[in-house]
Amino acid sequence: MRTLNHWQEWLFGVSPWDAGKITDEWFRAHFEYAADVVNHWVGGVLDLPTARLLNFGCGDGITDLALVLRHGATAIHGVDIRQEYAKLPRIAREQLGMRRLPAALSFETIRSGASLAQRHAGVDGIMSWSTFEHVQREQLTPILRDLYACLRPGGYFFIQIEPLFYSPFGSHLRRYDDVPWHHLLASEEELWKIIEAHEGPIDAAEVDFGFADFGVDGYKKFVFNEYRALNRLTADELVEATTDVGFHVVRQERRHLDMEVPQSLRDRYPQDWLLNNEIFLLLSK
Ligand SMILES: C[S@@+](CC[C@H](N)C(=O)[O-])C[C@H]1O[C@@H](n2cnc3c(N)ncnc32)[C@H](O)[C@@H]1O
To answer: What pLDDT does 7 receive?
Structure first.
C-alpha cells in the first residue's frame, strides 16, 4: 500500500540526512555498529536493495533506519511488543536532521507470541538483534515456528544475542554493576540493592531512548525487571530451538571473553557457558 510517505518520497526524494549530527552514543551504536553487523551477515546472502525484510524485536528502529540509509535496504517491517519505534521520527530529526522517515520503513506493535505468518508470509529475510534472550521460554518454539512460516523457502534468518545469560555480564545490569558474574553469585535482593544505590552517570552507549520516559529510578526498575525476565538461553539451546522447527544453520560465530572464572562458578556451570557472551547465528529455510 502506498503511504503518504511513499508519495512524498516519490516527489521530493529521501529526506536529506547527516551522520555528522549524531551526538547520542546509543544511536551511534545502532546506526553504525549494529547495522554494519546485520549488513555483513544478511547483506552477504541477500540483496538488500530488493529483499523484503522483517525485524523481530525492532525496538526503536534505529538499526532499520541505518540499513535503509547506509546499506540500501528498501523494505523493512519492524515488529515489537513495545512501541519505542514511535520515537524514531523525532530521533532521526535530532540525530540526523531528517525531516521524515524513509518510506522503506514500516512498524507494528504486536502482542507477545501473536502470529505474523498470515500477514507477513514470503519475506526474504528476518533479523533479530538482542531480542531472543527476552522471549519467554514457553513462547520460544511457537514464535520460531511462526517466523519459519513467514520466511520464503531459500530465505535467511539472522539472530544475534549479546550478552548471553551465563557470561560475565549476562544479567544486562552492567551499567549499574560491573562485577563479573555477579548475577550468578549474589541474591536478587543484593543485586537490587546495588542498583538502587547506584548514583552518577551510566554508560551512554547503554542508555536507550526509553530512559527519558522512565526517569532515573523508573529506569532502574525497568532494567531490573528485564533482568528477572531473561530466559537464560545458552547458545546451544538457541541453535537447538531454531533447528527443531526446521531452520538450517548456514553459519554461526560464538564469541568468548577471556577472563578468570571464579572456582565456585566453575563447579556449578560448564566453562563454555560462563565465557560465551555472544552468538551470531545465520539460518536458512
Ligand atoms: C534489548 S531490546 C533490542 C531492541 C532492538 N533490536 C535494538 O537492538 O535496539 C529487546 C526488544 O525485544 C522486544 N521483545 C521482547 N519480547 C518480544 C516478543 N515476544 N516479541 C517481539 N518483541 C519482543 C522488546 O520489546 C525490546 O524492544
So the answer is: 84
